[in-house]
Amino acid sequence: MTAKLAAFLITLVANIAIGVVVFFFLLIAMNGYSESDAMYGFGAYILLALFVSLLMAACAVRVVLILMKRKFSGSSAAFIAVPIFCVVGAGLKLVCAIIGVAAAEYVRVNY
């Protein structure tokens, strides 16, 4: 139970921290957009980033469970799952940022 909770919390906090860093880069990337257009992109990014953070934390718990069934200790299972899903989450956050810029561009062009 402790390994699952630790994996969930560490992965969630790390993914949220990565999301905040990517959000600041998104602010710089969307510098030329008007505020009304950029808000749609920021909203899309925030929703997708929160979903990705929760998904990566849940996946880390699932991998810890699978590894513990294969006779890994709780700490080693968490040490394996947490970095994997932090890296995957960082990649998905970059994809979410691209989707946020695309949403802002769509609103700017069509509305």
Poorly predicted spans: none
| Total DSSP helices | 3
Shape: elongated
Number of domains: 1
Largest sheet, described in full? none
Terminal Cα separation, in Å? 50 Å
- Could you tell me the radius of gyration in angstroms? 17 Å
Number of strands: 0
Helicity level: over 70%
Structural class: mainly alpha
Order of helices and strands: HHH
User: What fraction of residues sit in β-strands?
Assistant: under 5%
Query: What's the pLDDT, averaged over the residues?
Result: 97
Describe it for me?
The protein is mostly helical and 111 residues long. It has one domain (2-110). The protein is 90% helix and 0% strand. It contains 3 helices and no strands. Helix 1 (2-29) runs parallel beside helix 3. The longest helix has 37 residues, at 74-110. The protein is elongated and about 55 Å long. The relative contact order is 0.22. The model has no long low-confidence stretch (mean pLDDT 97).
